[in-house]
Amino acid sequence: SPARVLLHPDFTVGTVDRRLFGSFVEHLGRAVYTGIHEPGHPTADGHGFRRDVADLTRELGVTTVRYPGGNFVSNYRWEDAVGPVEQRKPFLDLAWRTVEPNVVGTDEFLQWAEREGIQPMMAVNLGTRGVEEAVALLEYCNGEAGTRWADLRIANGREKPYDVKLWCLGNEMDGPWQVGRKDAHEYGKLARNAGRAMKQVDPSIELVACGSSSMEMPTFGEWERTVLEYTYDLVDHISMHAYYHEVDGDRASFLGSGTAMDRFIERVAASADAVGAQSRSDKRITISFDEWNVWYQSRFPGEDNLPIQKDAPRIIEDVYSGLDAVVVGDLLVTLLNHADRVPVACLAQLVNVIAPIMTEPGGEAWRQPTFHPFATTARLAQGDALDLRVSAPTITTKAHGEVPAVTAAATLADGAVALFLTNRSAEPVEVEVAHLGAALEIAEGWSMTADHEPAVVGPEHAEKVTAEHWGEFDVAGRVAGDAGASSTTVTLPPES
Ligand code: AHR
C-alpha cells in the first residue's frame, strides 16, 4: 500500500486544548456590523446581535474568539466605546480607513461571547498607546469594585468581572502596515513593561507576545529571539500568523500549505527554545497561532489603497471553493499534530471577513465550504492527539519542495479514535491504517473533495459546492478487508 498510518493509543503528542478551535472578530469590514451585530435584522436578539450568526458560530464549534483586532487594535481607544451608546463618538480607524461608529465595544462583545459560551481573547493597543491604557482595560474587564476602571464597568451596568484570561500584547508589531509599528527592541521593552503591569493587576492571565507577522518577514527569527529575550519569563505564548492561497494556478503548492505551516511552527518553537536554553530556563513558551486561514491576499489592494469608507464596507470578503476547504482541513491536521506546542489557534476570521460564515445585511447567513472541515474537526478532535507514524509517497512542489502526499492526525477520547487524513495528490490513494492496541469499529466518516471551479459569491454557490464536495464518507464501502481487524485499508479520493 503506498501510504501507511500507524497508531497506538498509548503514544500521544499531548492533550488537545479546546482553544485550538478559536476564531477572530475584528472591527474590519462587516465582521462586527452586519456580521455578528445587526439590530433590526429579523433574527436580532434583544442586544442587537444576529441569532442566525450566533447559531452558525455554535455549529462551527468555535471555543474562543479574539477581539477587537488585528490591525484595528493598534489605533483603538477602548474607553471611547464603553458607556451610553448615544454618547460615543465615531472615529477614523487608520488600519482599514473606515469610520468606526463605536456602537459595539468591550461590553457588548464580552457579553455576546458570554451568552454564546465563547471564551474571549482580548488584544491591547501597543501601537499608539502603552502600559497605562493596557492596564486600565484589564482592570475594566477583570477588576473588582473599588477601583476607577472596575467602577466604571459597574457604572456601565456590569457588576461581575468578565475574568478574561487570554491577552495579546498588541498585534503584528513588526509589520510596516501597522499603526505605531515598532522595532523588536522597542516592542520587546514595551511588551515587557505592559505585560508586567498587567500581571500585577491580575496574575491569573495568560499573555501572548507578538511574533512575526509571517515567516516571510525579513526580520523573522531575529524578531522572535529579541522579543522573547525581553519577555521570556513573563509571557506564556508567542503569536504566529499565516495565510495561504493558490498563486499562479500552482495547485500542488497550495495543497501542500500544511507543510509550510508545519515548518513555520517548528521554526518558531526552535527560536523560543533557543532563548530558553540560553537563559537556562525550564519554562517552555507555547504558540498562539492567533491568525490562520486561506486568504487570497493577491486580490487585496492593500490597506493604504483603501478609500476612506463608513457604514461597514465590504473588505476582504473572500469567497471559498472546495479546494480552499481541503487546504483548511490539511492545516487543521498540522495544528493537531502540534497539540503539545500550539494550545491556541484562531481561524481568521469568523464572519464575512475571510470567514467560514457569510451574511447579507438584512438577509441570510450561510456556511462557506471551509466551514465544514473546521466544524467537523472541532467536534471530533477530542482528548489527546496521538503521535502517529506516517509513511507516504511525496509530491514535488515549487513552493515547498517535496511534501508528503498524505498527511494524518488522530485523537483519542474515551476509547473513540478520530482519524483525520488528507490526500494532497490528484490520484486516489490507498492508506493502510494499522491500529495497534485495539481493533476499531467504524462509527462515522466525512470527506471534503476539492473542485476546479472558481468560487462564486452567495449562498447558492456555497450550497452547490457543499452538495458536490462535502458529505458522509462511506468508510465501510471504502475499507478493504475487515474493519474490525487491527489493520484497515482506506481509499482516499483525489485532493481530499
Ligand atoms: O485578519 C486580517 C488582518 O490580517 C489582521 O488585521 C492583521 O493582524 C493581519 O495582517
UniProtKB/TrEMBL annotation:
Domain of life of the organism encoding this protein: Bacteria
Biological process according to GO: L-arabinose metabolic process; polysaccharide catabolic process
Start and end residues of each Alpha-L-arabinofuranosidase C-terminal domain: 290-496
Catalysed transformations (reactions): Hydrolysis of terminal non-reducing alpha-L-arabinofuranoside residues in alpha-L-arabinosides
Keywords associated with the record: Carbohydrate metabolism, Glycosidase, Hydrolase
Keyword match RNA-binding: no
Molecular function (Gene Ontology), one example: alpha-L-arabinofuranosidase activity
Enzyme class label: hydrolase
SUPFAM superfamilies noted in UniProt: (Trans)glycosidases (SSF51445), Glycosyl hydrolase domain (SSF51011)
E.C. code: 3.2.1.55
Subunit structure: Homohexamer; trimer of dimers.
Family assignment from sequence similarity: Belongs to the glycosyl hydrolase 51 family.
Matching PANTHER family: ALPHA-L-ARABINOFURANOSIDASE C, ALPHA-L-ARABINOFURANOSIDASE C-RELATED
Protein name: non-reducing end alpha-L-arabinofuranosidase
Taxonomic source organism: Promicromonospora soli
